[in-house]
């Protein structure tokens, strides 16, 4: 049975009439930039994450960069360093560069695939200013461990929560742990727009105010330029769509969780050959992606592909090994370097069909027997 990795048309069909009326509302007002929808979404998103404030941006990349700048922890031209994970989208590190800092990479935990606080501590230098743990694949990073390292060294923590909308650790949602957090609303995310979008969340209202100024060129109220900003606004159409989809996020995350449980049940017998995802605490994983590990993953991938089952690799290359981010002083990162050759993402999204999930599991079991 052919199984697409992701088919967003199924999600659209579930909410089509609501989306169409929201689009009609915005287009008939013809107020496309920073009108009521963005402000309402910011209030609703901050409430969902359990923080005082949110500032919407045009992407997750800009949300990260503007959050970093708004902390005031970096000075341009000083080669300040920001430590992050090598196993993430290149955008996480591009954001650090675009904020005027140098990305430095630390190793990850072999079970959760998120930043390892001990490795972070070893990567700290006198130029380090911030740590960006990435809640990769929907799994919360060890935020307590990271915050302890940060407070010992006077560093700020910004969560990269682009893949973890709604995940919970230590009783708080992703986005409510660091001094600030950045979300992406790229269409494939657990909460995705109908185009690009992002947001910063924080309990520091002034930090969010600064992001709101930076996303509009760096203007103050009276259109006076105060610092170098950029044009990074979320538009009203995206905000209107996000407000609808936010109402479904918890239910869709629960569907992801129940599909993850089904895969775990179906595949648990293969645990000597296939390493399955691990959740550090209940609610800490919202399964943005369902990633397994296997030696010679290409053989399994080819077998699935012959049956029309699509898989992906998130990510085929680690960031510290990419030309843009290579540095002479970078330490080896053995856990990430071993893992990157074995990871394979299986189809999992709220609108997957049970038959499709069972077909994927069956095909994997057949291959392994
Ligand atoms: C972990 C992570 N960080 C940052 C980003 C960047 O977000 P965006 O594509 O909205 O700029 C993404 C999405 O690609 C991501 O997955």
Outline the secondary-structure elements.
Elements: H1 8-29, H2 36-49, E1 53-57, H3 60-71, E2 81-84, H4 90-98, E3 102-105, H5 117-123, E4 128-132, H6 143-153, E5 156-160, E6 168-169, E7 172-173, E8 180-184, E9 198-202, H7 205-214, H8 236-267, E10 290-293, H9 297-306, H10 334-339, E11 343-346, H11 354-368
Parallel strand pairs: 2-3, 2-4, 4-5, 5-8
Antiparallel strand pairs: 1-9, 6-7, 8-9, 10-11
Bound molecules: pyridoxal-5'-phosphate.
Outline:
Helix content is 40%, strand content 12%. It has eleven helices and eleven strands. It has a seven-stranded mixed beta sheet, with helices on both faces.
Features:
two-stranded antiparallel sheet; binds pyridoxal-5'-phosphate; 369 residues; globular; alpha/beta; Aspartate Aminotransferase, domain 2; Aspartate Aminotransferase, domain 1; single chain; 7-stranded mixed beta sheet
Give the low-pLDDT segments.
none
The biggest beta sheet is recorded as:
7 strands, mixed
- 3D shape: globular
Beta-sheet strand percentage?
5-15%
Tell me about this structure.
The protein has helices spanning 8-29, 36-49, 60-71, 90-98, 117-123, 143-153, 205-214, 236-267, 297-306, 334-339, 354-368; strands at residues 53-57, 81-84, 102-105, 128-132, 156-160, 168-169, 172-173, 180-184, 198-202, 290-293, 343-346. The chain has 369 residues and is an alpha/beta fold. It has 2 domains: 8-244, Aspartate Aminotransferase, domain 2 (3-Layer(aba) Sandwich); 249-368, Aspartate Aminotransferase, domain 1 (Alpha-Beta Complex), CATH 3.90.1150. A 7-stranded mixed beta sheet has the order 1-9-8-5-4-2-3, with helices on both faces. A two-stranded antiparallel sheet has the order 6-7. It has a two-stranded antiparallel ribbon with strand order 10-11. Helix 4 (90-98) links the parallel strand 2 (81-84) and strand 3. It is globular and about 70 Å long. Pyridoxal-5'-phosphate (PLP) is lined by residues 59-61, 88-89, 91-92, 134, 160, 162-163, 184, 186, 196, 198.
């Amino acid at each position: 049975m052919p199984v697409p990795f992701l088919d967003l048309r199924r999600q659209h069909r579930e909410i089509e009439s609501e989306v169409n009326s929201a689009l009609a509302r915005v287009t008939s007002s013809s107020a496309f930039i920073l009108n009521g929808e963005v402000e309402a979404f910011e209030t609703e998103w901050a409430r969902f994450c359990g923080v005082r404030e949110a500032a919407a941006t045009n992407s997750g990349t800009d949300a990260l960069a503007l959050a970093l700048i708004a902390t005031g922890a970096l000075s341009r031209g000083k080669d300040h360093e920001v430590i992050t994970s090598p196993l993430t989208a290149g955008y996480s590190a591009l954001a650090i560069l675009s904020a005027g800092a140098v990305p430095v990479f630390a190793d990850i935990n072999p079970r959760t695939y998120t930043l390892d606080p001990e490795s972070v501590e070893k990567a700290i230098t006198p130029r380090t200013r911030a740590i960006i743990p990435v809640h990769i694949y929907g799994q919360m990073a060890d935020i307590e461990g990271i915050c302890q390292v940060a407070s010992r060294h006077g560093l700020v923590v910004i969560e990269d929560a682009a893949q973890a909308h709604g995940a919970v650790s230590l009783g708080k949602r992703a986005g409510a742990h660091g001094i600030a957090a950045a979300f992406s609303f790229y269409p494939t995310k657990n909460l995705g727009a109908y185009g690009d979008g992002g947001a910063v969340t924080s309990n520091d209202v002034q930090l969010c105010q600064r992001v709101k100024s930076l996303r509009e060129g760096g203007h103050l109220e009276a259109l006076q330029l105060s610092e170098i900003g950029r044009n990074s606004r979320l538009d009203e159409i995206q905000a209107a769509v996000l407000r609808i989809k936010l109402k479904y996020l918890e239910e869709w995350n629960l569907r992801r969780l129940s599909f993850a449980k089904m895969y775990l049940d179906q595949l648990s017998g293969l645990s000597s050959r296939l390493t399955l995802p691990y959740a550090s605490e209940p609610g800490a994983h919202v399964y943005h992606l369902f990633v397994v590990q296997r030696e010679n993953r290409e053989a399994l991938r080819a077998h699935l592909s012959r049956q029309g089952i699509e898989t992906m690799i998130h990510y085929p290359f680690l960031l510290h090994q990419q030309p843009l981010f290579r540095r002479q002083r970078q330490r080896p990162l053995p856990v990430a370097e071993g893992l990157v050759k074995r990871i394979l993402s299986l189809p999992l999204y709220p609108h997957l069909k049970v038959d499709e999930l069972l077909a994927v599991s069956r095909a994997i079991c057949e291959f392994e027997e």
